[in-house]
Design a protein that fits this description.
By secondary structure, the chain is mainly α. It is built from 6 helices and no strands.
């Protein structure tokens, strides 16, 4: 089960990388992306349950918290590796669907921007 959640995490990260890669290759066109990407990465790290469990989030904020695409992934990894926490059908299917969508969208953006690399550089 851990391989399924880790493959979803890799698929999600690959999609995000495909989305940000054309912008990092073309700093002439997208200057601010190089500076804002670490800020968004830091926010996403603290908004994801890496060092804490989802049960530590207050109940009234938990449904909003679980909209973070990495939260169910880390909960599933914690459940499959350590046996802690719980897993629901939403925890199982939401990250897989979202990871596929992000990967597909990132690949589409990369292929569209790839044609313009030589023109901008």
């Amino acid at each position: 089960m851990a391989d399924r959640f880790s493959s979803d995490l890799a698929r999600f990260a690959g999609g995000v990388r495909f989305w940000t890669r054309p912008r990092q290759r073309c700093p002439v066109r997208f200057r601010d992306v190089l500076h804002i990407t670490p800020v968004f990465t830091q926010i996403l790290f603290y908004a994801s349950p890496v060092a804490y469990q989802t049960s530590a989030v207050p109940e009234k904020w938990r449904s909003l918290f679980l909209l973070n695409p990495l939260a169910p992934l880390f909960d599933g990894l914690r459940w499959s590796l350590l046996g802690e926490g719980y897993i629901t059908p939403a925890t199982f299917f939401y990250p897989a669907l979202l990871a596929l969508m992000v990967f597909w969208l990132g690949l589409l953006i990369f292929h569209r921007a790839e044609r313009q690399f030589a023109d901008v550089i």
